[in-house]
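Quality-control log, excerpt.
Job 1 of 2 completed; input and output follow.
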Amino acid sequence: MPPLRGTGANPEAEHPEYAGHYRLEACLGAGGMGVVHLARSASGLQLAVKVVHRHYSADPEFRARFRQEVGAARRVSGAFTAPVVDADPDAARPWMATLYVPGPTLSDQVKRNGPMAPAELRRLTAGLAEALRDIHRAGVIHRDLKPSNVLLSDSGPKVIDFGISRPYDSDLRTETGKLIGSPPYMAPEQFQRPREVGPAADVFALGAVLVHAATGRGPFDSDSPYIVAYQVVHDEADLTGVPTDLAPLIGQCLAKDPAERPTPDDIMVALRPPSYDAAAFIPSQRRPGAVEAPAVSGPEIAAGAGADADTHVGAAARGRKATTSGGGKRRWLAAAAALLVMGAGGVWAAGVVGDSGGSGESEGSGESGESGGAKGSAAFAPWRTPLPTSGRSTPVCSSAVGAGEEASGPPAALYCAAGGIGAARLDPADGRVLWSRHGPAGDTPSVGVVAVSGGLVHTAVPGGKLRAYDAAKGEQVWDADLSPYLGAPFAAGDTLLLVSEDGTTEALDSATGVSLWRHPLTGHRRPDYALYDGGSGLAYAFEHSAYGSTTLVTAVDAATGHAAWRRRLDGMLTPVGTSDGALVLTSMNGDAQTVGLVHYDPESKRVARLALPFRMNEPEVVVGGDTAYLLAHGGTLVAVDTRPVGNGAVRWQLETAAGRTSAPVLATGNRLYFSAADGRLLAVDTERGTLLGQTSPRLRDGKLTYASALPAPVAAGRTVFGTAPDGSVFAVDGQDPAHW
């Protein structure tokens, strides 16, 4: 095969002869990352082949982005995308071949023919909403939807270019927590909180794309990307020229608060019934060449009051050093995958509500089955408590055991948070709200957990602060300003670990907020903490090399900051659990797919590599004993032997039929629990690999919503606590999942 070669120094002039075994016939166009060529398969099928520019081929960052694009495009191939036919992200000049889609880009169409007619615009709106729905269902966030990434075919719009950032399109790039996208079509959170960008960012981009299609310009216009960035964050969108029947819907898409934007399903519903004027767009052939949360005052509010209101969602935040004042200051950058959820403002409920049965609703025999059907000496009483959440927030909970109690027994308290609720303590026996802190209206959404550590409840609050509440009464104990730190604090026993922008790790005493130690970790530039082992008191920091070929892992004593051991291991690895003193890590390939496990024994320094039977896309993993349980997108659950002598043998495999899921949670009695995006709680027998039972879906207003992460259930003793998109917290009997 002739080698790839260019015909000039200009990237746009590159014309290699082949990509893999595909002969490249003509240049279709060029972008910041590569050139797209027309080619044919052996059967004559027309293909569009993207070949990365030569000067980016040696850049590991761009190779990684290209691998991400290939993996994302493969997952979402369907009616609204160009299906991937073949790819080689590891070639000397990485390339990807997709089915050729005849038709211009939306950018070219508007440039040549001007703004779209109302009927064409309505059809484009419906088609792109349907495309985003399918893309998000596949677990992908596009992050760079813009007119040049929309192809107009006779069968509807096709979305292309997944998960890449074009250096020619944007001067606004950072190294870690990158600003991904093109400024005129980026959502405010992509500039403010790039680590928590979720599907709602694509909806914002959709609104901007539709304004461009309707008017020939964007809703935010300037020659400077920095001015555009300011306008996106602070200014109202300019909808002049947008058809009046679509302007309100497009305006909602461009809401600053992600919680106020409609979902793709909402957009499709808003366009019903289909307009008979929305005639199909016949393109020319592409030739080669929400409502704010109300302030709460007055009498106490029972748990569940206002639970069905569609109000704002609260925001996660970051902060720094311990202080005694509660005032907010400096910058506030929220983290969507934060370990802590916001909480601030006045008390909206205090004390025990109700004397008989409390505010929690008995599940009875309808959804959860008769309590008398539960096994054990005492009858179990299921309950459900609707919390007055705002927006589309799903509550997130954490439990705490009392002094002298075993973790396997019933919890002393259950602590929950959600949009509009900073923190709340529930009675685990009946779901009554014992105390709560209200989150102020107008905050951005967040998903995370309430951290219970050092006898206190920790949440993030507006102003870039971490706030600690007395677990019994809900009174504020201390604040910590964490704004210079990356991400959210990592809870490690009675210690909170934070990593600063220069890579320094600082540990705070979770009971007092006082700094215990602060120093960089030898060999690390910007470490991440992924795992804490309560038995040994070790927190595991890891960091991938620039090329992703090795991973530096350090076991840190969380209380003292001393490194117990340090080892650089081959591969792109992530710590996920411990087994008999050994560390278990997942191993990813260049396409960010999990392909195996690594078992590392720090005493013998022996490394064992265990291959998985098939590649898994971003599985959630939990380790129990000598077994790792991997739960992938689509609901495939696999139990794998982590022992070196087991060679990664699959003990069982179960198809749970759940799409997007939370992380799995192990519990006593050979149980594994996880939540689904529709609010179901599922139980699996870890010995036999069988589904034991599941609850009914609990959707808000019957709609499936999207979040950057799903809260995991809480298992304590015989009780399993779940949360759902309808804003409720519920308890079921873990001994009797067949009657859920």
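Job 2 of 2 completed; input and output follow.
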Amino acid sequence: MKIPSFIVKTSGIVCLLLGGMNLAAAESPSLVISESDITALRQASGGLLEQSMQDNKRLADAALTEGIVVPWPKDAGGGYTHEQHKRNYKAMYAAALQFQLSGESRYSKYVTDMLNAYAKMYPTLGLHPEKKEQTPGKLFWQSLNEAVWLVYTIQAYDMVADALTDEQKSHIQNNLLFPVADYLSKGQPQTFDKIHNHGTWAVAAVGMVGYATGREDYVAQALKGLDLSGESGFYKQLDKLFSPDGYYTEGPYYQRYALMPFVWFAKAIQTNDPDKAIFAYRDGILLKAIYTVIELSYNGLFLPINDAIKDKGIKTEELVQALAIAYDITSDRSLSDIARQQERVSLSAGGVALSKIIASNSVAPYPYESKIYRDGASGKQGALALMRSGNNETGTLVVSKNTSQGMGHGHYDRLSWQLYDNGNEVVTDYGAARYLNVEAKYGGHYLQENDTWAKQSVAHNTLVVDQKSQFNADLKEANKKPAEQVDFVSGELADISIGRINTAYEGVNFTRVQALIKPESVEPFVIDVVSIQSDAVHQYDLPLHFNGQIIDHNLSDYQSFNTWKPMGEDNGYQHMLLRGQGNSASSKNRLTWLLGDRFYSYTYGHYSDSDDSAKTLFFQLGANDPNHNLRRDQGAIRRLTASNVVMYSVIEPHGEYNGTAEYVTNAYSRLKSLDYKVTQSGAELTVNMGETGTFTLVLAGGDKSSGPTEAKVVKEKN
């Protein structure tokens, strides 16, 4: 029998086992960690590598001290048994790697004993008692966690396999590895064949079992789907889940999470079948994905898009592992800048190389740039536009979200935006309503407020029509209708993004033009123009969620309410407490707040067929929140009733507050005037910034029903 090409290193004989034709497994280790990695690690020392190796040894030694603890599955996410099984797969991985590095049999014995304990228990398990209805697991409440467990566990098995007898291998494979792989594949085809991060973890787990144990059928199913048609499986996921720019449709938080199975399985494919050139597949899509997730961050944290938990950042384990793999392929020295910030490296050949660069003070800065990341498999479902000035730790970043829905983890927030400056999130996005693994908060699940608040349009910095969420918060409809990235221009004076959507609200079209203006001598500032067209009169709300302490405003007839009441009954408004309101003039309303040591002024106005009802409403979260699940975030809503309207604004950072030295500089806005006018070719918004200069955003193209399609910024000296 001829051995197929995808098995590179083989030993022993070909054998036929239950479940399909099998090949003898490759020499150990043969997955993500290979013999060349172990050789590099044994020969290296010092720097971040030494620290990372010591961390791994401490984890392995602590596991050996604790002994084998394999509890009967009982708890949902965050509970004791759930967390213990998570600790077990990480402990097995650490101990197996320590065995490879040291050759000490006590580490391989620990892994073998743990695997035997699971092999004894797993065949007796039914569905988890806290099972999720659609994707139940056995060890865990959902099969996603089971797939993660197997991805780690199969690598641990692979790294100790040469220390096992044939009888031990057979027992562990037939009573544990194969049953888990079968359950994750043919036992749950709705998940295994799904184009989704759950499916990614499942195919990676099953495929890696295939490579480690010589199961050709598992490898084939993982690559091409259960029916081997290629309509699902790893290749199809690479085709569908990433845009041509490497943007993952669920956003950077889930891109980070999905990155691990993608790059780990790809590395296993490369190790066992280099002829597949998996890292070159689809124009190097996996390498693009690694770079993209790095770039979708600010000051070390990922941009909180869709169901994102806001404290996840570039130090996450998934990116540590991906970074080393990327460097091993590209030798891109700028990746060492990210490794330096991560303060640790992967225990692999790539990690060794990155550690050496950092230790020799040869780090090259990572080149963050203003750019767009197209969304959708073909790149035609809108885009995420990033406009930058300065470095990624303290500079200015504008994020214009003109993307698709992002599947079930997506939010109803087409054409929303965020602003980062001076190391802080200034114009904010709520992210997800969830306390991950905090059992006291609904078992660590997504809270009900994730649906009633975080996903709703008013929770974001985007247009809300008639106090209803975009697409009436209908996921099926929202998935069909992405935003459009009309244009993007990056230049020395300004970066400009134009986004548009005509389907979020029936009969309402709106376009958003945002520009990051970059004067030479002072802080950058943002121009924002929202053009709305409709044949009918509507109530338009434009929220601004901001971080900081309000200093003052210039609204007329302002009322502050001693009794705060909810602003509505649904669509997120039921959670917003109205604190006060004032009348908005047609031009040059101003709100100033302080965040950290810098002031921010929001100056705004509107041009419409009716401006009698224009108001600004100040709100704070906390209504209808009996369990105190929501943060007490704040914001302001610009509200007016009209059919056609242009809502424009400028946000400028300025001045300094120093509480230690007790001084304040430039606490007042530099903006002298803000004028909008319609021209023969479109419109112009002129911003007079005093000594800094006068800047005019020139809008053109389109028509009265579609909004502008072109924009440029012109500067004049005052």
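Post-run check on job 2. DSSP finds 17 helices and 29 strands in the chain.
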